[in-house]
Design brief:
mainly alpha, 2 strands
Length: 457
């Protein structure tokens, strides 16, 4: 990193623990606002459970709509944590330090929110247990363990468990610091959570080894989660437009594209809300912008592959599906919006270093990417179902209802609410990592010039 700010340990403690030890008035206002939106979502879910799935816009042959689109979207957002934390931690990328924890926490809340949507979508969440456990021994009715719909919960809950452990291991030194600055019930709580952390050499060594091991172990899970989500579609025999062998890498790279963009959005919000200009600097947005240009271009490659694989097959449903997406209202409008938002507007902007260092521009363009990526998932799911039948008289249309719109809106508020509550109990930027960065930084001689660098053991 070229930009450096000299900070003392006392200043880092004061600025990064401020949100945990003190509660400004705006915090409660934001909690009430987000809580109200989540409450609307709970009400909508209650209406759905009481009246059944008839309150959704689903109808034959479209049985997956906004709710499953939202499930795939939030699973994609959850890929930010491992991409930023595990990979950048293993490669010792210095600019990761203020970014990692927010990305990991975003993963936890995005994945938890995603897991809710297949349950809500059933209309009878308690019956989802039948997917996992045999429910009629006498007649020999068993779940189909070969179905990716069974693998999905296993992969998601393994990923969620690994991410929670990942966050916790990196939190332990900070929990020890908060314990020493609190009293009463909070002191007792942080004493339990900090596991007796004293900061001796043995504890630091164990914490570092655990962090590296978890980083390495969680990477295969990271790849498997969205691959299995893609097989939910690829292995559905009835929908011919989903039979693309490229779906697994296409879904994974798309998830990284939307996840890292969401991290840019969160970083900008943290900077503005918590006034963290000493820690989150234009250099970090520059680095994330360069990463996004590469990731987005790789995603575009797989998107084009999927598009032409469908065209080469010359199957009537596939051709009709592409015609519907590109030339028929309102799907054609959504396609143009998707193309502009996910690649054509943000990527040319991010090719300029000046734009990558412009934080408001990065904030709005990252939101644009996620609007585009939500539409991408919608265009995979709904048009494929609309044209899955061979006979034109069975083709239909799909319109979301107010219940679906309320549930999707509430999911964004729920993730924001979770992040906000986390910030009240734990620092969103790792305090010990900032201090470590201050200790390691040095000027390195390169030819005749001395440039900013790091000195590791």
């Amino acid at each position: 990193m070229q930009e450096r700010v000299q900070l003392s340990d006392a200043q880092i403690n004061r600025e990064l623990l401020s949100g945990v030890l003190h509660t400004p008035m705006w915090f409660w206002g934001l909690v009430l606002l987000l809580g109200a939106v989540v409450g609307v979502g709970v009400l909508a879910a209650g209406v759905l459970i009481y009246f059944g799935v008839g309150v959704l816009g689903l109808n034959r042959p479209v049985f997956w709509g906004f709710l499953i689109t939202n499930f795939v979207f939030w699973v994609g957002i959850s890929h930010a944590g491992v991409m930023i934390s595990a990979i950048l931690r293993l490669t010792q990328a210095e600019w990761r330090r203020p970014v990692t924890r927010a990305a990991e926490v975003l993963t936890i809340f995005a994945l938890s929110t995603a897991a809710l949507f297949p349950l809500i979508h059933t209309g009878r969440p308690w019956r989802a247990l039948y997917w996992v456990f045999p429910y009629d021994f006498s007649r020999g009715i068993w779940p189909n363990v070969r179905s990716p719909l069974i693998w999905d919960p296993s992969a998601i809950f393994t990923y969620l468990t690994g991410t929670i452990l990942f966050v916790f291991i990196a939190l332990v030194p900070d929990l020890g610091m908060i314990r020493d600055r609190t009293a009463g019930w909070r002191h007792k709580l942080y004493s339990v959570l900090s596991l007796g952390w004293e900061g001796n050499p043995r504890q630091w060594r164990l914490q570092a080894v655990a962090g590296i091991l978890l980083s390495a172990l969680i990477l295969p899970v990271f790849v498997s989660v969205h691959s299995i989500v893609s097989w939910d579609f690829g292995m559905a025999i009835a929908v011919e437009t989903w039979h693309a062998t490229v779906f697994a890498p296409y879904f994974v790279i798309g998830a990284v594209h939307s996840g890292v963009s969401a991290v840019v959005t969160i970083m900008a919000l943290l900077l503005w809300i918590f006034k963290l200009k000493n820690y989150i600097r234009p250099d970090h947005f520059d680095a994330l912008g360069r990463l996004l240009v590469v990731v987005a271009t790789a995603w575009l490659y797989f998107y084009v592959l999927d598009f032409f694989f469908g065209m080469y097959s010359l199957e009537p449903q596939e051709l009709e599906n592409r015609t519907l997406i590109m030339f028929q209202w309102p799907m054609s409008f959504l396609f143009v919006l998707f193309a502009l938002a996910s690649y054509l507007i943000p990527i040319p902007l991010w090719l300029s270093k000046k734009n990558r260092r412009n934080i408001p521009l990065m904030f709005w363009s990252s939101i644009l990417v996620n609007i585009g990526m939500w539409l991408e998932r919608f265009q995979i799911i709904v048009p494929g179902l609309l044209r899955k039948q061979a006979f034109t008289f069975t083709w239909a249309n799909y319109s979301p209802t107010i219940v679906e719109i309320a549930l999707v809106t509430a999911s964004f508020a729920l993730v924001g609410f979770g992040l906000l509550m986390f910030s009240k109990f734990f620092p969103l930027i790792p305090v010990w990592e900032q201090k470590e960065g201050q200790l390691l930084k040095d000027d390195v001689q390169v030819g005749r010039a001395r440039v900013p660098g790091l000195v590791h053991d």
